[in-house]
Write a structure and sequence with these properties.
With 104 residues, the protein is mainly α. The chain has one domain (2-86). The protein contains two helices and no strands. It has helices spanning 2-70, 73-82.
């Protein structure tokens, strides 16, 4: 009788292991599919971010070029003379003020 219980226990353990094995294969396949989808999504996001980075770099290059053009001394002088009616000061036009006394 003891031998029969041992055989049943052994068969029960074998059946349990077979069931665990049979259930784990689909679970692992689902996990693999999930990881593959996640990998694909992340790869797509990386490509989009790299593309956005390239666009931003190009925009930045254009803006730096525009800044250098707009801040050139010749352009500023031309606007001052033509649009604002300014002129370069002669040495006689310059008044020097000297401050004396203690600074507070």
């Amino acid at each position: 009788m003891n031998q029969i219980k041992k055989n049943r226990l052994k068969k029960g353990i074998e059946v349990f292991l077979i069931i665990i094995f049979a259930v784990s294969i689909p679970a692992l396949l689902c996990l693999y599919a999930f990881q593959a989808k996640r990998y694909t999504d992340l790869t797509k996001e990386i490509k989009e971010l790299e593309s956005k980075q390239e666009r931003l770099i190009e925009d930045n290059k254009k803006l730096v070029g525009e800044i250098s053009i707009l801040s050139s001394a010749e352009r500023i002088e031309q606007i001052a003379v033509d649009e604002l009616g300014m002129h370069k000061a002669e040495s006689d036009d310059i008044i020097r003020v000297e401050m004396t006394g203690e600074k507070k």
